[in-house]
Sequence to fold (131 residues):
Amino acid sequence: MIPNHGEGDGLRAFVAHTAVSNLILRLFSNNITPAETDTAATFTESAFTGYAAITLIGANWTITEGAPSSAAYARQQFTSSAGAQSASVYGAYMTRTTGGRLALAERFTGGPFSIVNNGDFVGVTPQITFD
Fold:
């Protein structure tokens, strides 16, 4: 058993709130459901025009201790800067800035989302929950 304070401390370390490398938020375009044995290489990173991975700064996470405890980050947006594309986005994953190891992944409910036109976007509000 881990008490709420322990969960909070674990979350702070997990999201680099204190002395760990930051997370990088990425979108994936391959039609898979994330699994426990995946690595970063399992995912095909999105490549539509205007796409760029986003570094999530550890100190910018909001940690809430409780049952469950959680870490939340402000909504991030990936926006196309060109039209006439045909890109499917199935989910998001996070890697570490140091070493690039896979930290977590999630397939979007209701996806895939299509990027076709200039200004099409996918918004992600990162949140991690421990209980």
